[in-house]
Amino acid sequence: MDAYQPPVSSAGPYGPGPGPEYGQAGYGPSYPAPPYGYGSGRTNGLAIASLVCSLGGLVTCISAPVGVVLGHIARRQIRATGEEGSGMATAGLVVGYIFTVLGLLVIAFYAVGLYFFAHMDLPNQS
Known about the structure:
The protein is mostly helical. It has three helices and no strands.
């Protein structure tokens, strides 16, 4: 039995160099970069205001309904003009409606609590 003999290669000590089977695949044709400002259309200002007012409703309790109104106006403007910001207007509407309903529930529970507290029979302190 003969001892194993490694194959003779002229590739050098680090293996074969990049040949046609080891080369990088082509990436296809290159396309030019889009023009400056492409895709970054104008965002509707009322959509931004709707989201800000709706989130501010967490603190002020009065700006959430304002955010709902601004959100509806912003969505109508976005449909008419093609501006960006539809997601912001929708988020302003959802958050505004949630905070408005929560605010109304808090006011209702407060009013009911005051009514029952005012009509509660207190024991005589004499």
